[in-house]
Every structure is written in structure tokens, then in C-alpha cells.
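Quick one, C-alpha cells below:
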């Protein structure tokens, strides 16, 4: 987004804000429910979060992420900034009980505590084995760089970028893996009796923005009140499908990959909703980072009733425009083209289905 003069930007915000729907926009970030309010973005609930290191609490109002004021940012950018804060360990400032407080998704642990033997980076959890210099991967968060690179739980990490991890602290390891300017780290792991070289590529490794005040964030920032970004993408037969074709209808949009476990689980829900609601709801699956043959094979075994569009990889225009960092990313777009709900990850039994049904029900009553 090109920087605008302050007076022009303020006028633009008043204009587009007046056009936005009355329904408050909700972001479900890894199970943390965040709702827009008059001051910005308020944390409504955290009880169902699977983000184990989340410092956010119910009642917090998110003010800044990495120095960026979020009050005038839309749901796409809020989710991207929180994802970035989680992966890069940058500060999040909230208003908590009338006082500003700076939070970190990776708070320091007391030496010798149970928590100090575990850290997270790039979508993987690393644990040091007590009384040894071994570091084991204990968990892989689906849709993140660790899963895309092929890392698995129980892999033993041996080296990063040619540097042995023996004797390295977990804080040093997390810092080494999360350097924002790296184009990818070669990691050596042991799996059973075999050793593997794997490239672990950060989510946001591409060149940063040209705008000097925003160059720390290598993705565009969308203003609050903006409509969902337009796109036109080919389906599996090469026919192009544009988001604008469905203006006037509610759209359920999901970025997914057949390699992503949570995406596959979520696809069953979308298939059910698509079959049940017919033309009252448009469901679109935007496939990311899949080998074409592997995708075709997946759909032959597990056919889906809604259109699958080819969005390319994470660096292609549509994923970048939507600030895509990890999968799945699911968005509900109202008939007027505005994003009204955004969800990262997938929680079976979570609020997504109820939000879709509520929207379609409201439209049916009109």
C-alpha cells in the first residue's frame, strides 16, 4: 500500500468507514476471539486457543504490534501482524485495565524451570532433553513453515546453517531460526537412524515493502473498512474465476493445501456447508503450494463439491495480497464485499460454522 498524506488518508478512512457494514468484524486468531470496537481490536475470549504461548487475555485491547498502530487496520492485517509477532517474537502492546502493557508471544522463562527447556519457532516446538545437549522436535503446527519443509515430531535437530546445536541455548536457537532477513535455513535432523538436510524457509522471507516506515513488515497493510481484495484465478480446468462474480452473495473463502492436515479436516466442513446451502452460499477453495499431480490425486480420492482455484505459492500475488502467512486461512465475505469474519487455523466445533449459518440466515430473512 502506498503511503498517503495524513489528510488524504484520514478523509479516505472516513469515506470507506461509512460504507462498511454495521456488523462488527471478528478475527479468530488461533482460537483467540478478537472483535473490532471503537478503540480498535478487543480480545473477547481466549479459552479455546491452541496458541500455547499466547500472552493475550480477555478484555485486552490490542494497540500496537511491532510499533504499528492497529486501530485503523483491517482484519487481514491484524491476523498477519499477530502471526508475524508469534514467529518473530516482536512486541505487542495492549491496554489492560486502563494501562498499557507490552507482551511477547515468547516470554522468558526462569532458569531451570520446566518451561525453559522448550521454545517455539517457525511453527515447530523444540525441547532440550534434560542432562544432554540433544534438542528434539515435539510438535509441528499444521500449515506453518516447519510442516511445509517436511519436519516431523520426534526429529532430532543436529545443526542449523552448518552450525551444530550442541551446547546452544533454546533462546539462541529460536533467534537463529527466526532471523527476518534469511531466505531459508538449512537444518540437519536425525530421524530414526537416518540424517536429513532440510530447508526451513520462513513464512515472510520475501523482500520487504518499499515504504520506509513499514519496511519491517514484508506484507501489505490493509486499512480498516477496505473490501476484500479482488482476484481472478484459474480453476483446475484453466477457467478463470473472479471474486467480483459473486457480489451480492455471501462468500466463504479458504486458503488451503492438501499437504496441510488442518486444511483437510476443515474441507469436510466446507463440503457439508456447500452441499447443504447450495446457491445461498459461495464456497471457494484457493489452493496454495501444492504439486499439481499431488492435488489431482488428492481430489480423486477425496472429491470436494466446491470450486478449487489455483493461487500459486505463498509469494504469488493473491496470497501476498491477503497477507497469507500460514494455512488454513478462512474468510467470510458479506454480500457487499466486506470481510466480516477471519479465522486462522481450524478448531473442530469452533465458531466458524455458526458464523456462516448466522450470515446466511440473516440474508434469508431479507
Amino acid at each position: 500500500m502506498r503511503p498517503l498524506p495524513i489528510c488524504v488518508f484520514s478523509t479516505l478512512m472516513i469515506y470507506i468507514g461509512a460504507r462498511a457494514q454495521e456488523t462488527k468484524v471478528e478475527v479468530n486468531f488461533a482460537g483467540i476471539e478478537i472483535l473490532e470496537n471503537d478503540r480498535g481490536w478487543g480480545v473477547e475470549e481466549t479459552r479455546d486457543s491452541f496458541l500455547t504461548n499466547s500472552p493475550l487475555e480477555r478484555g485486552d485491547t490490542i494497540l500496537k504490534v511491532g510499533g504499528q498502530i492497529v486501530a485503523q487496520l483491517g482484519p487481514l492485517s491484524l491476523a498477519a501482524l499477530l502471526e508475524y509477532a508469534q514467529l518473530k517474537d516482536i512486541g505487542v502492546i495492549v491496554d489492560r485495565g486502563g494501562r498499557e502493557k507490552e507482551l511477547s508471544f515468547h516470554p522468558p522463562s526462569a532458569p531451570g524451570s520446566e518451561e525453559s527447556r522448550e521454545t517455539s519457532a517457525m511453527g515447530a516446538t523444540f525441547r532440550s532433553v534434560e542432562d544432554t545437549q540433544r534438542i528434539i522436535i515435539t510438535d509441528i503446527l499444521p500449515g506453518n513453515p516447519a510442516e511445509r519443509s517436511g519436519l516431523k515430531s520426534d526429529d532430532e535437530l543436529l545443526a542449523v546453517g552448518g552450525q551444530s546445536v550442541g551446547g546452544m541455548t533454546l533462546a539462541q536457537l529460536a533467534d537463529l531460526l527466526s532471523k527476518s532477513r534469511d531466505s531459508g535455513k538449512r537444518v540437519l535432523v536425525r530421524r530414526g537412524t537416518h540424517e536429513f538436510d532440510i530447508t526451513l524457509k520462513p513464512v515472510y522471507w520475501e523482500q520487504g515493502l518499499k515504504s520506509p516506515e513499514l519496511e519491517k513488515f514484508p506484507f501489505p497493510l490493509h486499512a480498516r473498512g477496505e473490501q476484500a481484495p479482488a482476484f481472478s484465478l484459474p480453476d483446475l480446468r484453466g477457467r478463470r474465476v473472479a471474486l467480483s462474480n459473486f457480489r451480492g452473495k455471501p462468500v466463504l473463502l479458504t486458503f488451503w493445501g492438501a499437504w496441510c492436515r488442518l486444511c483437510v479436516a476443515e474441507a469436510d466442513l466446507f463440503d457439508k456447508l456447500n452441499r447443504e446451502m447450495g446457491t445461498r452460499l459461495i464456497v471457494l477453495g484457493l489452493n496454495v503450494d501444492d504439486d499439481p499431480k499431488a492435488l489431482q490425486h488428492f481430489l480423486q480420492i477425496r472429491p470436494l463439491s466446491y470450486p478449487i482455484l489455483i493461487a500459486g505459492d505463498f509469494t504469488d500475488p493473491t496470497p501476498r495480497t491477503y497477507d497469507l502467512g500460514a494455512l488454513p486461512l478462512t474468510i467470510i465475505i458479506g454480500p457487499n464485499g466486506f470481510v466480516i469474519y477471519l479465522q486462522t487455523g481450524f478448531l473442530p466445533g469452533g465458531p466458524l460454522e455458526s458464523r456462516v449459518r448466522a450470515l446466511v440466515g440473516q440474508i434469508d430473512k431479507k
